């Protein structure tokens, strides 16, 4: 089943497109190409949220750099295209500032535990991607938001990590252990001698300084700053809505296709609208009828006769390409056999990197041609 990209991009009821998949499969370039095509071919007011893109992608959009604030891409026709790159630390700071006073925010910003959590904690990038998506949607400046998901260890982390981090930040046990008790002492300080060994062990594992920083961080949170789980749940519901379309991006390699199949299954379980699969960097041959066996046989014949070594070399290169094309087709067939209901579009492998708007337009054309 073929995926009609232009029908998807031209559908005004689709307000969010999420490109997901394992790392290194071309999600960022795919997201940018989709947003550009939506603006130029369908007149959409689009913004693309990229995650840690290569510098050449910013340059291909005609921008010297991408930041946490949307910037308009010039030299486009039709609608409008804005682009931005997620800065998870700055986004976390924005969340703090929007839910507490400036004085309390500065106290939180100075806390070593917050500094570590907002920059390096597992799940923070995924959570902040969802926060930024919620901010862009609430701004109501664009009729299409295209999201490039973080380069996680697993594609499933985009769905799981925000909930894990939110549970940690809103965790009852964390607040119970660290919240001030009557008289200004924490629960740790009023525990009996029978539990002192336990608390001492925890302090050794975490470090007394870290434990103090966590306690100070939690005590800095006022009632208006909580609700991490609530906001994560709200954005999760947006992702389940019909205004959202997920595109799973994969290359025709076993690990990437296996990850895509897992993600497709998970999206179905979570009742999230899966629009289709983008099979990226697919190799093709202009002479498919010239098989591996025939190519190698002809090359060997020329070599034995000591004739045309250049032709022999070309035949061997063709044999390798045909073998790769066949291998990729078998790998892709595993996905389509397991998920025949999911539309697929294929993007041919390119000779070079995307380096300008013209190259992004070519990727968009390939996505639409399928």
Description:
GO terms for molecular function: ATP binding; ATP hydrolysis activity. InterPro entries: ArsA/GET3_ATPase-like (IPR025723), ATPase_ArsA/GET3 (IPR016300), P-loop_NTPase (IPR027417). Pfam families: ArsA_ATPase (PF02374). This is Anion transporter. This protein has about 375 residues and is α/β, with parallel strands linked by helices. The protein folds into two domains: about 5-160 and about 235-285 and about 340-370, P-loop containing nucleotide triphosphate hydrolases (Rossmann fold); about 170-225, no CATH class. Helix content is about 55%, strand content about 10%. It is built from 17 helices and eight strands. The chain has an eight-stranded mixed beta sheet with strand order 3-4-2-5-1-6-7-8, with helices on both faces. It is elongated and about 85 Å long. It starts with a helix and ends with a helix.
